[in-house]
Amino acid sequence: MDKELLEYLENVTEQEQEILKSDRPVLSYFTKDGSSAVVDSDVVMKPMTMIDIMKQPRFVSLPEHTHNYIELVYMCSGSTTHMINGTTEITITEDDLLFLPQGTSHSVSSAGFRDIAIRFVILPEFLQYPLSMLREDTVLRRFIQNAAEKKPSECDFLQFHIHDMPEAKNLLENMIRLLLHRRRNSRQVLQATMGVLLLALSERTYMITVGSPSSYEQQVVLEALNYIETNYKTATLAKFCESCHQPDYYISRLMKKYSPYTFSQYLQKRRLLQAAHLLTETKEPVENIITDVGYENSSHFHKLFRKTYSMTPKQYRRKYSQTDWPMFDSPHART
Fold this sequence. Notes:
The protein is an alpha+beta fold.
């Protein structure tokens, strides 16, 4: 996170000082009724808003509670430990995102001075526009759709690990700044920014930890996606099934149930994405790239690439390359 913004967030707030001095129950600062365990949007949000932020109070633990809104917790630095629905303990560390649907019960351990967590408070109607930007039927889209339509969630929580996603971190920082210093049209900008963030996250579905009664099946699918991401050159369904001790028909059924792609479709998508990246970001000859991404048959690769991008690899490189490197037509052109 930007150093200046982080230093600002590290300042002890008036609310944190008051909580430390007072004998009032911590939750009473966030609920309508002092004895309630429901954190209320009317209390924690500015009037006439659909999204707001609050800094998680440090130095004290937060007892078990629910909330009548969707909560997105972004860990800016340090770590905190959450107990979800009284059964699942998770620790979120720096650059983790925790999505909590309405009604999920959770408690939070005491946070230290450098354990900075920002909580995005989101009303369901705010998500309608960001939802319209998500096309593929992923775990994240189902989660957001259920939240936007106020339907029971399939998951108790979603945890994203975005340590290597600078674009997502920048979007989150931009939203924090917007919410700290609201300006005209900020709602539209926030909705658009949230939509772009969700799009970026939906492309990294394999980086989610899913918490739900059926989470074993979903985790197997996410493990399959992660396996493809990290082993796309040599990945096969048979090898993955062998590693997780499951038959191929079972993995195929789960992929169809929880992912918009079959195993082979996602593998093909990942290889072609990597090829497109190498075409624009390196000066590798096309034939070398074909081998690098796991294809042995050059004509098959060219056919798939043209079908996906409506142009040849050479045309794609010429159109999208950000470099002044010369084009290489054959492996013999390398020096």
